[in-house]
Design brief:
Blueprint: E1 14-15, E2 20-24, E3 31-35, H1 37-43, E4 46-51, E5 57-58, E6 63-69, E7 73-77, E8 82-87, E9 93-95, H2 106-110, E10 119-123, H3 126-130, H4 136-146
Parallel strand pairs: 4-9
Antiparallel strand pairs: 1-2, 2-3, 3-10, 4-6, 5-8, 6-7, 8-10
Amino acid sequence: MGGETLEEVPRDRRYTKTHEWAKLEEDGAKVRVGLTKHAVEQLGDLTYVEVKPIGTEVKKGEEMGLVESNKAVDHIYAPISGKIVEINSDAGVIEEGGTEITGELEIVSEDPYGNGWIAVLEPSNLKEEWDTLLSPEDYEKLLSGESH
């Protein structure tokens, strides 16, 4: 079976069907984005995480980055529309076109909901898009459907 159990899906954020999470920052003006535990478990050992350059406008559901592992290459999709304003270089995430990984990619695998976040977006359509994301309960239903 594997995957996340009910206790492991944090309640303080929303999710996508493509296994990204979005968490509203305390200031309410930015959204932190990452990969779910399920996603990093499926990928295995990460070798590379890249995000479009800071300042890039992305649309909900559009590719905003790339993740590579010893098992696969997968896209990271924007859970909401907005401008990329921060990239988590401490966790080894690099800007598209960059070459030097300065952080530890293991952080993304070991702490995907905490220090292993990928990027921060300044949302352009938060009100309309937030409620289209999966609630923790709906994300759990998605996972339980995948684990059979």
